[in-house]
Specification:
Layout (H helix, E strand, L loop, with lengths): L6 E7 L5 H11 L4 E5 L6 H13 L5 E4 L4 H11 L2 E5 L1 H9 L13 H19 L6 E7 L10 H20 L2 E6 L2 E4 H4 L8 H4 L1
């Protein structure tokens, strides 16, 4: 069925859960033009090798925009090049963004102001997304990092919290949200039900 607004798909899961592969398969199977927004930077040899592996796995017909910070601007550029925009990933974007903030060397000084600032960046991204033509689709990849133990150091806790808030904001705006488990995608937004307290009549 034709869409009357751009579509947003969020794909999240743990490390090596198959997020990027699933996202790339969605884009490839769409049969439409694809632009890839890469937020990764080659900070060390391992990351450089990871980036090369991901590049080799992508179709040579895809456009690639490397942008570690300015997502709204990158989306504007990508949407001019293709109908499907794949943003991979928010996990690295949050890390990149955090290290541009003041007092990052002493995470104990980071307050709720930083959480609000990160969400403002996401709101800018969503504002840009909502201006796109109806045939456009944005696929966003991110990690779910809140299921493990609480990080023992302040910066780790701040990172976990900011990414969790970012994921919530994106999930709330998304048409589909896929949770990856061992390479399998489960559409958790379709399964979601609004929480409610049943009345005594409902219980009876």
């Amino acid at each position: 069925m034709p869409h009357h607004a751009p579509q947003l798909i969020l794909i999240l899961g743990g490390a090596r859960s198959g997020k990027s592969t699933f996202a790339e398969q969605l884009a490839q199977r769409s049969g439409r033009s694809v632009a890839f927004i890469a937020t990764a930077t080659a900070s060390d040899d391992d990351m450089h090798a990871r980036i090369e592996r991901h590049q080799a796995a992508r179709s040579p017909d895809w456009h690639t925009i490397e942008e570690p910070l300015h997502l709204s601007l990158a989306l504007q550029k990508a949407a001019l090049l293709a109908d499907v925009v794949l943003l991979d990933c928010m996990t690295l974007w949050v890390s990149n963004w955090l290290f541009t903030q003041e007092n990052i060397d002493d995470a104990s000084l980071i307050t709720a102001h930083y959480y609000a600032a990160a969400l403002a960046e996401i709101d800018d991204l969503l504002t840009t997304f909502n201006t796109l033509a109806a045939q456009k689709t944005l696929v966003v990849v991110t990690n779910e990092v809140g299921l493990g133990v609480v990080p023992s150091y302040a910066l780790g806790r701040v990172y976990r919290d900011v990414l969790g808030l970012v994921n919530q904001r994106l999930a709330g705006a998304a048409n589909r949200v896929y949770l990856m488990v061992a390479g399998l995608g489960v559409d958790i937004k379709r399964l979601h039900e609004e929480a409610a307290i049943l009345s005594s009549i409902d219980i009876l």
